[in-house]
Structure to design on (79 residues):
């Protein structure tokens, strides 16, 4: 059996209250990990805020085309 299969087999015989405790613990563990990791799922509101900021920066000319950026990196680092 794989680890996941073993885990599922053990959880299937546990009382519901214990399964809920495990789920809560797992949720807290994942939340703690996401606080450390720069890659975490974003809420819909965060995505909309980022999109609004991006659009504002484009309107203010605070951006440049990706090709220009890559050309600069190529010149600078010989990529």
């Amino acid at each position: 059996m794989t680890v996941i299969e073993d885990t599922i087999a053990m959880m299937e015989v546990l009382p519901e209250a214990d399964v809920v405790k495990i789920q809560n613990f797992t949720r807290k563990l994942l939340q703690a990990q996401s606080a450390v990791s720069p890659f975490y799922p974003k809420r819909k509101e965060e995505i909309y805020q980022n999109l609004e900021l991006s659009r504002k920066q484009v309107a203010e000319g605070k951006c440049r085309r990706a090709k220009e950026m890559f050309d600069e990196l190529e010149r600078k680092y010989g990529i």
Observations:
- The chain has a mean pLDDT of 88.
- The chain has four helices and no strands.
